[in-house]
Each structure stands twice: as C-alpha cells, then as structure tokens.
Amino acid sequence: MELFVQQVIAGISTGSIYACVALAVVMIYVAIGHLNFAQGEMAMFSTFIAWQLITWGVPYWVAFFLTIAISFVGGVIIERVIFKPLDNAPILSHVVMFIALLTIITSAAGFIWDFSIKTFPSPFGSAPLFGSSLISAHQAGMMAVTLLLLLALFFFFRYTRVGLALRASADNPVSARLVGIRVSWMIALGWGLATAIGAVAGMLVAPVVFLEPNMMLGILVYGFAGAVLGGLSSPGGAVLGGFLVGVIENLAGTFIPVIGGELKLTIALCIIVLVLVLKPGGLFGRATIQRV
C-alpha cells in the first residue's frame, strides 16, 4: 500500500509538469488552431537562460522570474515575426514552420551552451519532505509552484479585462473584433503566456532530468498526451489530463512488469491513440459543430 501511495504522489508531482506543458500546448492551439511542436524546445531554451543567469551569480528566484519575463517577450516576438505572416497560410506551412523552429532552437542551444549535460539547482532541495520517504522537498515544491501558477491563471482569465478579452478572442474571434478587441494582439499574448508557462515547467523539471538540449523531448509527448486526454479546447481539462497522465504512467511502470521503466513513454503514446479513437474531443473538450 505504501508503494502505491508513493507512486501516486510521485505521479502527481511529475503530472504537475505535464499539466504545465499541456496548458501551454492548449493555449497556442486555442489561439491559432495548431499544435506547437516546438513547445518543449522553447521551454528548454528558457531553462538554459535561467541556468546562465544563475551561473552569473543572479539569485535563483530573481533568475526564475526574470526568465519568465524574457520568455513571455520571446513568445510574443516569435508570434509577431514568424507566425503572424502565416495567418492565412495552409496548415502544412504552420507544421513546417513549427518543425523548423524546433530544429533551430535545439541547434542554437547546443551551439551556445554545447550538448553536455548540466546540473540545474533546485531551490527546494532533494531531501525527503518532513523526513518522509513518500515525497521529496523538490516534488512538493513542484506541485506548490504549479498550483500557484494555475491559480494565478484562473484569476487572470476569470476576473481581468485582458484575460476575458483573451478568452473571447479564442472562443469567437469574429464577435470579439466587433466589440473592439484586438484579436491579433490577443493571439500574441497567448503565445507569450504559453512560452512563460513552458519556462516554468522547464525550470521545475531540469533538476530531475538534468539540463541539455533534448531534455524536454519526452516531457512534451507526455504534455501532448495530457492535452489530448483533457481536451485540446479545454485549458482546465488539459491541466487535469496532465495530472492523470503522470499518475497513470507511474502506476503502470511500477505495477505492470512488462512495461517497467523503459516503456513508460509508450503509455503516453497509447493514451493519445486511444483518446483520438474513442473520444477525439478529449474528456472535457467541446464538440465542434459546423453548418454545411
């Protein structure tokens, strides 16, 4: 029983990272209708920026929030410079651009910081929390930061004018334009928020997986799985989906001998396939109705 509880708690802690990535994926999907295949690499690059600041002697939390601000601005710039001209381009053009962005960011990170594995500090430490073997201080810190982030986003989208405008632009851009909302800049804002959220995920997971240009590859797959499971049209569903994926893959890797630790990534891929086959809209996604 103790092992089961330990794996559930560990799954929730890693699921908090998947939830952040899933939320970032969904925010861009809702804004432009496409999946950002470079989301993980953008988070990785932001984490390298934080590592560089810390290496230069900047205190951790100052580097943490400064990286979030830099990532937000970077996301807005990427949308304005690269994807704004592709507004009316075919879907394939967006896919090619995402793949190009993925490759460029990975190569740039390797060129600037090389491809060697680096350690990333944790502000919470790695000791067991309160002496318990069930959860470490870093795992508890990951969950706390993620929950605070999700709470802040909830209040932003629910009670601020900009947040409400962003929701309106995503739900019905035509009506949003009619009431004076600058939908184009709302899309850029969504990109900035998604990039900042990805940066948080990268900085929280880097002490666990270590820092290198390909660190987010597997995590992005889990994030996609969480987004698909919860629903690509539902930010809240994507968050819950991320937590569920974390728990499911942890329990499966522990209690199903055939899977073990080597095939845990396969769990995420199976979840994506099953959801797309059985319920394409996800658990909490909205059905899309088109008049013909």
Can you describe this structure?
The protein is mainly α and 292 residues long. The protein has a domain at 20-216. The protein is 73% helix and 0% strand. The protein has eleven helices and no strands. Helix 2 (39-55) crosses helix 8, helix 6 (161-171) packs across helix 8 and helix 10 packs across helix 11 (264-278). The protein is globular. The termini are far apart.
List keywords for this structure.
292 residues, mainly alpha
Describe the structure concisely for a colleague.
Helix content is 73%, strand content 0%. The protein is an all-alpha fold and 292 residues long.
Shape: globular
Measured distance between first and last alpha carbons: 55 Å
Oligomer type: single chain
List the uncertain runs: none
Total of helices: 11
Helix content: over 70%
Mean pLDDT: 84
**How do the SSEs run, as a string of H and E?**
HHHHHHHHHHH
Tell me what portion of residues adopts beta-strand conformation. under 5%
* Major pleated sheet: none
Helical/strand content category: mainly alpha
Radius of gyration: 19 Å
Give the number of DSSP strands: 0
Keywords: Amino-acid transport, Cell membrane, Membrane, Transmembrane, Transmembrane helix, Transport
GO molecular function: transmembrane transporter activity
Transmembrane segments: 6-30, 60-83, 95-113, 133-157, 185-209, 215-232, 239-259, 265-285
Protein name: Branched-chain amino acid transport system permease protein
